[in-house]
Amino acid sequence: MTESEFDDAVDTDAAATATTATAVTTGAAADIPARLDHQRSRPHRAVPDVPNFRDAGVGTVRPGVLFRSGTLALLTPQGARALEALGIRVVVDLRTASERSRWPDERHGLDYLDHHLPLLPDRSETGIEWPSGSLAVYLFMAETGGAAIAGTVRRLAAPDGLPAVVHCAVGKDRTGLAVAVLHHLAGLSEEEIVEDFLRSNVHLGLDKGPVPYLDENGEEQLSHPVEADNLLAALARMRELHGSIEGYLLAHGVTEEELVLLRGKLG
Fold it and tell me: For residue 130, what are the contacts with CB-CB under 8 A and spacing of at least 6?
């Protein structure tokens, strides 16, 4: 089932789903939605309780096989049924263990393979601080996130790897870089990759400026709009380190066969 077919099928449930999501955000978990300004965000019609959820099937990537989002911590039973209808078999969580512990993904009976592949070091466990400044963070992700990005490729290339959701906390930076690599493998042009990457700003309301969110320690931070130059710098750093994006993945354990398999599954 493609996302457009799925949207048509669930239109009659959309209002009920949105109502349930609103009820959750005003209840005991009301601190979690501080990650986003829901008045400014553009939720998915069928899964409005999951921030920045959307089909990553753009360009040469088939719709309905690869989805991207922020945390599933506010997933409602209706949202779980929506993901089930999309046939989701795998969820790749790029967050740290601390984030997962504080904001665990909800399932509501949804059966999927959960793969934890932290793209950044856990500050509370390693003592390694993330750099300040968005450009520095993107370069840091390219330098330290190879195992997670390669693990994502390997998981999705497996026979039971798709349809899948790749997510982090808000679904824009770590997820944005990982999906950009997947889009590159699928043959998207740089312009197409950047265009999809920048959609997070509209989906999260960041096109109107920064919004507050809670980090893994429950402390309020500001989430800033994604910038094309940061993504391109991270991809360039991968090429600088290993000659090409493919070389970067091979250096972190992906096989040539897995690259071929994933390209075939995405296209």
Answer: 120, 121, 123, 137, 140
Q: What digits encode the pLDDT tens for the residues 124-164?
A: 778 788 888 899 999 999 999 999 999 999 999 999 999 99
Q: Rounded to 5 degrees, what angle do the CA atoms 258, 189, 227 make?
A: 105
Cα→Cα distances 221→35, 54, 115, 181, 239, Å: 9, 24, 27, 27, 31
Q: Kindly state the helix (H) or strand (E) to which residue 115 belongs, with its residue range.
A: strand 113-116
pLDDT in tens, 110-129: 999 999 999 999 977 787 88
Mean pLDDT in the chain?
85
Q: What is the CATH number of domain 3-266?
A: 3.90.190.10
pLDDT band with cut points at 50, 70 and 90 for residue 169: very high
| Domain map (residue ranges) of the chain | 3-266
Q: 66-69 and 220-223: which strand pairing?
A: unpaired
- Beta strand 164-167 with 66-69: parallel, antiparallel or unpaired? parallel
Three-class secondary structure of residue 128 per DSSP = coil
Q: 75 and 107 in contact (C-beta within 8 Å)? A: yes
The sign of the torsion formed by the CA atoms of 93, 97, 101, 102 equals negative
CA–CA distance, 186 with 201 (Å, rounded to integer): 23
Closest CA to 90 of 143, 160, 27: 160
